[in-house]
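Please decode residue identities from the backbone states below.
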């Protein structure tokens, strides 16, 4: 007898109740009787039949589950349908910090700024490459982009000039900064006037932040970053925070409590394994991953309790995942690398995303344009085309994850599950439990 395969569902318990998440239809259902429980437990073990269950009952249940799964049409989204696209200008490789896990260079010979002609050409190319888009976001990245404030101001003026006769198009500005150079009244006024959204990198409370995010002389950066954050608050500039979680973090709940106490939107990511850094700074050991999974369960309990108690949650990643479950959204690819996002460096070279820049994944230049064949090879892939993801119940929740992470990691299933997969699975399993607790 054919039964639903275990890559099409996930069993999980909340308290004494058993629930199932149905992959594809994205439904969360309570297992309400012993027959359903026996069916799913048998399917989980890869069995072809359910012991002591009438074959007709099992067949009918299988039919209903498959109909639910197949009632949803899953397809990739062509780039021509994007409402919004983003161009990242890697303003400089140089930085005034020396974070232990970061790719950026602190060498003086790599501190040069992007020429104005490269910025202009990349913006003009963006309009030609995505003529159907309605909104265009310009993202200043680095290194530390605020080492070159004049370039940023000149580029904003240039973008306004390029768009002045395009009344059917809109644009916006974002910047990622370490926060050390924000405390400047003129700069804050500039951000506010041009409706910037500023992302400040900070990794948690002082001891945790300063274990990784250090200045060039090795001292901690926490106090300087916090001064920048307070300046943004005072000036009423739109901003959010971003944490990078590395193997150095031993108390994840402390990190999330800290960010919630700041009452500002924040997101987080885990370190990407790279040969350019000591693996101890970026790669979690099996023991560390097990501990991280347990800590993340504490984090989701903490955030779910805030929702249940009517308190505001500031973790945008958690809110987004709850929304994905609430609306049964499908993610058909993990990120926007090579799709609605491009990055150009100070030499005018294109890359699929900022995480692929240190990998030297070149896909073109502003003078010759994007090489479509190369870009296609590095773009984030449609989840159903990823052989290693087809066996995973969470494939339409994560969409396959970060494309750069995928390329940096040597896949060797099933013996060596990638770090980002392990993390994504415990994130989604705990979010499912939080979702049920909140709904219940």
């Amino acid at each position: 007898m054919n039964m639903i395969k275990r890559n099409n569902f996930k069993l999980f318990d909340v308290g004494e109740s058993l629930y199932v998440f149905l992959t594809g239809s994205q439904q969360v259902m309570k297992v309400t009787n012993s027959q359903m429980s026996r069916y799913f437990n048998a399917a989980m073990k890869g069995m072809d039949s359910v012991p002591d269950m009438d074959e007709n009952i099992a067949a009918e249940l299988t039919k209903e589950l498959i109909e639910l799964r197949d009632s949803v049409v899953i397809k990739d989204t062509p780039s021509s349908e994007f409402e919004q696209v983003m161009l990242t200008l890697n303003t400089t490789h140089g930085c005034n910090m020396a974070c232990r896990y970061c790719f950026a260079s602190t060498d003086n010979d790599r501190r040069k700024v992007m020429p104005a002609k490269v910025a202009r050409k990349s913006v003009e190319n963006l309009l030609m490459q995505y003529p159907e888009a309605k909104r265009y976001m310009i993202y200043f990245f680095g290194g530390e982009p605020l080492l070159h404030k004049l370039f940023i101001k000149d580029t904003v003026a240039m973008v306004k000039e390029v768009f002045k006769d395009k009344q059917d198009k809109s644009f916006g500005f974002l910047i990622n900064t370490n926060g050390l150079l924000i405390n400047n009244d003129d700069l804050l006024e500039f951000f506010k006037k041009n409706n910037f959204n500023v992302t400040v990198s900070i990794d948690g409370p002082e001891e945790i932040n300063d274990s990784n995010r250090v200045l060039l002389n090795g001292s901690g950066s926490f106090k300087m970053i916090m001064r920048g954050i307070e300046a943004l608050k005072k000036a009423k500039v739109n901003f959010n925070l971003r944490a990078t979680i590395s193997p150095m973090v031993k108390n994840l709940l402390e990190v999330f409590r800290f960010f919630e106490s700041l009452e500002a939107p924040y997101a987080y990511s885990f370190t990407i394994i790279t040969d350019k850094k000591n693996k101890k700074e970026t790669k979690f050991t099996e023991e560390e991953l097990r501990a991280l999974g347990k800590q993340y369960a504490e984090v989701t309990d903490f955030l779910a309790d805030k929702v249940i108690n009517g308190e505001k949650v500031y973790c945008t990643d958690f809110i987004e995942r709850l929304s994905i479950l609430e609306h049964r959204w499908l993610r058909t690819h993990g990120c926007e690398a090579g799709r609605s996002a491009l990055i150009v460096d100070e030499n005018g070279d294109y890359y699929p995303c900022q995480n692929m820049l240190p990998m030297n994944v070149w896909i073109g230049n502003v003078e010759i344009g994007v090489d479509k064949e190369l870009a296609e090879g590095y773009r984030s892939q449609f989840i159903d085309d990823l052989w290693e993801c087809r066996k995973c119940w969470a494939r339409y929740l994560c969409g396959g994850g970060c494309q750069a992470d995928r390329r940096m990691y040597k896949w060797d299933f099933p013996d060596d599950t990638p770090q980002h997969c392990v993390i994504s699975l415990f994130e989604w399993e705990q979010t499912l439990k939080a979702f049920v607790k909140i709904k219940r």
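Observation: The chain has 15 helices and 13 strands.
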